[in-house]
Write a structure and sequence with these properties.
The complex is a heterotrimer. Chain A is 47% helix and 10% strand. An eight-stranded parallel sheet of chain A has the order 7-6-5-4-3-2-1-8. The N and C termini of chain A lie far apart (45 Å). Classes of the chains: A alpha/beta, B alpha/beta, C alpha/beta.
Chain lengths: 316, 295, 483
């Protein structure tokens, strides 16, 4: 039996059947309506001072990510430097929220951001597929924590979820959370594999019931990653979860957000769905890499009035 | 032929599946084309009209909710019953319209065939006038015809039987219920038709038949707030205008009188569509969900 | 001006659409027989921006003599226009559709200025639908033989058309596109508070090379419309507007051969069942009653919510209403614009006061209204029953009455308990319930798990006192054909 969920909804995780009943009792999601709402918020026009604010906020929310088989200490050090000072020309540029790396790169990353506000996040639990025994996943997490990770980005067992073994998924998250200790846990659903919005809503509640500090859309490794609609849906979930339990959970869309325009649309979603309490990098993150340079170029454009170019931002 | 004294029929109204006398207790004399007395027909009052509307409204839910197939069966049953009583109607139509027996027989046969024609329409009209609409968005969108409701029908004055059925059958085929005002001068075929309806499977109240002064009965019907539509076939131009004005108070659908040379000509679908509403239902379709893994 | 409680630092700066794109002349004439002309009696009226009360232009006001002149011009044009091959009429309509697309930004800004509705709506809803409607009916012009009305269906002649102020250009499109496609000529009267886009449309007819007299535009008040409807040489009357005026028109044309279609008021029920997709239902309720400030005949002005989820739904709804942005209609971030006229504002205000005095509970989000112009905060009434005036009368404003029900039967009974029958909404995840309820609703348009969607292919129109005839789709042709 699971032991997380220290709140009003604790009972729902008492058994597989209570959990199933609860998750399947959540209101359904009409796909067209959800997407229409996300698209309509996307037409908000953000200009001037609001835009400058949004860009700096977005930069501060980036989990600057490198998750390549070819990652090296050099690559990770460069990433760390960029996270601390995203724009070497303009030191007023805020640092990113974190760098996000594989567990074996945590120590390198930690050293690279030492002395700054930048956190080190590590994917774990046999990222991205998550197809490994629980013991391996937990070992993965413990190694990352031992190397100094401040945050863990775990993937759920989509196979178990899609097979309807919700309690298994729940127990795994609880176990990982326990292994995290003080580190904050982001729970990745891989929304592109869950496929339906109803599943995403259920996974969101499942993750929050299990003690997730963040719910996160995706690994960035599948065809469909973060979208305005699935992020909107998850923002509704954290909003409703706090209303019911008093517990606030963060949201992290990841993968596919590449432009300032996109990022600002996501901030509008946050602003108008979950509200201002989430407009802070403690509660909202972007899992991204190329996004940062676009934010920096737009920031330079706002400051100077002329359009910037890729030669004026770093390639790291 | 014996010289046996025949038994006269007492003609009554047909309201809610029952055969009441007029609430007024009054009758009027009906004669044949040469002025010979045929019968006393009930002289309906505005209260009879009111009762008929109540009966028609009460019947509307079940009749409009019946399957189209079922309505077709019921209408076909009317034709079967009429076929069996053909000689009676030939006699009545000949008297009413001053026709020879063979011409009257042709009218009656055409009338029976008309029931058959409309019986076959019940489960087809929706496919002809409804259908899916290809909207520019992720929505299922379907338009279907639905009956307007309670329809007041002023039967044609001249064609006492074929004309009558030609205006009543299309109204009920699609699921409306009717309050029919029979031809003022020649109401007997209509009142006899009621007896056929009562012995076929048409539920009580689906067709209600009133005889009397068309203008007197039609005026309260045109003004009645629970009547949804009115067919003015049996009204002259002056009356039709008055009734159309009265009908505007609750925006009844009005079918104006149109000159009809030959009631036996194949009808189009206009008399059905005149008393159909189009309902359009939308629903999102959306996608099955985006999915796929690349590792 | 916003009413939201959002981040004090993430306050969206104003993002006004430029009005430089539209050049409004100080005065406009009547458009008769291809020319702009003054009214015979020289009368004029002013059209104002309801968001600021600024006078936008001075407009000639058509009188009886002008109506006669316009009908004659349309009659004269009818001969050649109706004799044109359908394929040629089609090309004129295609041209018009394209020019509308090209000038859509200009027309959107103009509509927003004259009507007061948000640019977001004119840009994303009105104008795309206007162009689409012309495209749709353009294609019918040479296919009428196949429309199901028999071979070679004939046009009626001169159509007199009277349209309202809530969707000025869209209602023009709904009227003119099918009329011209079927070979009729038209005399159209726009509403007195929103004449400008119709007058710009006259210019589009000029650009498209449309023959003179095929389209005539007569700005004016109710008397102009009455004269048009009563004109003996008009063959077809099409009206969109209030039920009261619709009844008058029905009386006027009684006893004539004029074909009549009426698209009138409504008191649409938006029914939310306990298994509804709640977040989408909330959006649907909002779009149902606050789209175009609720000045929509098919608005979902009665929310029928299953009693078991009333509290939850109302909490969500109120939270959502608190994020609505009311203010400058030209601001791209504005959700709620101005009420179209002082007269309409007065009507809304008085009905809302009546709702309060009859004991319903009134709620609005914190909301600062601009000092100039005509404004009304989004308003929600709870504890409403079928007996309340606000549950029966069409308010035509941003006012939602919330009623509850216990069972599907009761929901249907309450939804149908009105003299109107234009629209209804159903929210439930249960497919069979959607179809069962949709079957029982006496309404011309039923939106299930969505609301206020429109499309040129989709027939639109009412049951009962919401009028008769359908606009849009194949059905919409019938109103303009002699069938």
């Amino acid at each position: 039996m699971s032991t997380a969920a220290p709140h009003a909804l604790a009972d729902v995780t008492a058994s597989d059947s209570t959990l199933r009943r609860f998750l399947h009792g959540l209101p359904g999601v009409d796909a067209v309506g959800l997407e229409a709402r996300a698209a309509s918020l996307g037409t908000r026009s953000i200009k001037t001072t609001a835009k400058a604010y949004a860009i700096d906020l977005a930069i501060s929310m980036v989990d600057l990510t490198t998750l390549e088989g070819a990652d090296t200490p050099g690559k990770v050090r460069a990433l760390g430097a960029k996270a601390v000072h995203p724009d070497p020309i303009d030191r007023t540029t805020p640092a990113t929220a974190a760098v996000c790396v594989y567990p074996d790169m945590v120590a390198t990353a930690k050293a690279a951001v030492a002395g700054s506000s930048v956190k080190v996040a590590s994917v774990a639990t046999a990222f991205p597929a998550g197809r490994a025994p629980l013991s391996v996943k937990l070992a993965d997490v413990r190694e990352a924590i031992a190397a100094g990770a401040d945050e863990i980005d775990m993937v759920i067992d989509r196979g178990a979820f899609l097979a309807g073994h919700y309690l298994k998924v729940h127990e795994e998250i609880v176990a990982v959370k326990e292994a995290c200790g003080a580190a904050r846990l982001k729970v990745i659903f891989e929304t592109g594999e869950l496929s339906t919005y109803d599943n995403i809503r259920r996974a969101s509640w499942l993750g929050m019931l299990a003690g997730a500090d963040f719910i996160k859309t995706s690994t960035g490794k599948v065809a469909v990653n973060a979208t305005p609609a699935n992020t909107l849906l998850m923002l509704e979930a954290v909003r409703d979860f706090r209303a019911q339990t008093g517990v606030q959970v963060g949201v992290k869309p990841a993968g596919g957000i590449r432009t300032t325009k996109d990022a600002i649309k996501f901030l509008v979603l946050v602003n108008e769905t979950a509200g201002e309490d989430w407009l802070d990098n403690h509660w909202f993150r972007f899992g991204a890499s190329s996004l940062l340079n676009d934010l920096l170029m737009q920031r330079q454009k706002l400051a100077t009035g002329r359009y910037s170019g890729p030669d004026y931002v770093t390639v790291d | 032929m014996s010289d046996r004294l025949s038994v006269f029929k007492t003609y009554k109204l047909y309201v809610g599946g029952k055969f009441p006398r007029s609430e007024s207790g009054r009758v009027y004399e009906v004669t044949d084309a040469k002025g010979k007395w045929l019968a006393n027909a009930p002289l309906s009052s505005r209260k009879d009209a009111r009762d008929a509307v109540v009966a028609a409204r009460k019947a509307f839910g079940a009749w409009s909710g019946a399957t189209a197939y079922n309505r077709g069966q019921v209408l076909y049953r009317v034709a079967e019953m009429l076929e069996g009583r053909k000689s009676q109607f030939v006699h009545e139509v000949a008297d009413a319209e001053g026709l020879s027996k063979s011409k009257a027989a042709a009218q009656v046969e055409a009338t029976i065939d008309r029931w058959v024609w409309y019986a076959g329409w019940t489960d087809k009209i929706a496919q002809v006038v409804g259908g899916g609409n290809p909207v520019a968005g992720p929505y299922f969108n379907l338009s279907s015809p639905e009956p307007t409701g309670v329809v007041a029908v002023l039967a044609p004055q001249e064609s006492s039987f074929l004309g009558l059925v030609s205006v009543v059958a299309p109204v009920i085929a699609t699921g409306n219920t009717a309050v029919v005002v029979a031809s003022e001068r020649a109401p007997l075929p209509a009142l006899s038709l009621a007896e056929v309806l009562a012995t076929s499977d048409v539920p009580g109240g689906v067709v209600n038949v009133l005889s009397g002064r068309t203008a007197e009965i039609a005026t309260p019907l045109a003004a009645h707030q629970d009547v949804n539509a009115i067919d003015l076939a049996g009204a002259d131009d002056v009356l039709a205008k008055e009734l159309e004005i009265a009908a505007a108070d609750n925006l009844k659908r009005v079918l104006r009188p149109q000159p009809v040379d030959d009631w036996s000509a194949t009808p189009g679908i206009d008399r059905m569509t005149a008393f159909l509403e189009t309902k359009t239902v939308w629903h999102p379709t959306g996608s099955l969900g985006a999915s796929g893994s690349s590792y | 001006m916003t009413m939201e409680k959002m981040s004090p630092v993430f306050e969206y700066a104003p993002a006004p659409e430029s009005r430089a794109i539209v050049d409004i002349a100080p005065s406009y004439g009547l458009f008769i027989d291809g020319e702009f002309t003054e009214a015979a009696d020289g009368k004029v009226f002013k059209t104002v921006s309801p968001a600021s009360e600024e006078v936008l232009s001075e407009i000639a006001r058509a009188g009886e003599a002008d109506v006669d002149r316009a009908v004659q011009a349309a009659r004269k044009a009818f001969e050649k226009w109706s004799a044109l091959p359908g394929s040629e009429r089609a090309k004129y309509l295609f041209r018009i559709a394209r020019i509308i697309q090209e000038r859509s930004r200009e027309l959107a800004v103009l509509e927003t200025l004259d009507n007061g509705k948000p640019i977001k709506e004119t840009r994303d809803a009105d104008l795309p639908l206007v162009a689409a409607h012309f495209f749709y009916y353009a294609g019918w012009a040479d296919k009428l033989d196949h429309a199901g009305f028999g071979a070679n269906p004939r046009p009626l002649g001169v159509a007199g058309q009277v349209i309202p102020w809530n969707f000025p250009l869209l209602m023009l499109a709904w009227k003119i596109a099918p009329a011209l496609a079927t070979g009729n000529t038209v005399v159209l009267k726009p509403a007195e508070t929103t004449p400008l886009t119709a007058l710009f449309f006259a210019d589009i007819c000029r650009q498209a090379g449309l023959p003179k007299g095929v389209v005539n535009i007569l700005p004016g008040y109710g008397d102009t419309g009455a004269a048009l409807v009563a004109h003996p040489d008009v063959n077809k009357v099409a009206f969109t507007g209030s039920t009261a005026v619709g009844k008058e028109i029905a009386k006027t044309v009684a006893g004539t051969r004029k074909k009549l279609t009426l698209e009138l008021g409504g008191k649409g029920a938006n029914i939310v069942f306990d298994d509804a997709p709640i977040d989408q239902a909330v959006e649907g309720i909002v779009s149902g009653i606050f789209f175009n400030q609720g000045q929509v005949c098919c608005a979902g002005s009665r929310l029928l919510v299953q009693e078991s989820i009333q509290d939850e739904l109302l909490d969500s709804l109120k939270r959502r209403l608190s994020t609505l942005r009311l203010g400058d209609p030209l601001d791209k971030n504005t959700d709620i614009g101005a009420i179209n006229s002082e007269e309409q504002l007065t009507r809304i205000t008085s009905l809302v006061e009546q709702g309060e005095s009859e004991g319903a509970e009134r709620w609005s989000p914190a909301c600062e209204l601009p000092s100039a112009g005509y404004w009304f905060a989004p308003t929600l009434f709870t504890n409403v029953t079928q007996a309340h005036t606000i549950a029966r009368d069409e308010i035509f404003g941003p006012v939602l009455s919330v009623l509850t029900f216990r069972t599907p039967d009761e929901a249907v009974a309450k939804a149908n308990n009105t003299q109107y029958g234009l629209s209804a909404g159903i929210w439930t995840e249960k497919g069979s319930r959607i179809l069962a309820v949709a079957n029982k609703l006496r309404a011309g348009v039923v939106w299930s798990n969505t609301f206020n969607k429109f499309d040129p292919t989709s027939p639109f129109g009412g049951y009962k006192e919401s009028g008769f005839g359908r606009e849009g789709g194949r059905h919409g042709l019938e109103a303009y054909l002699d069938v």
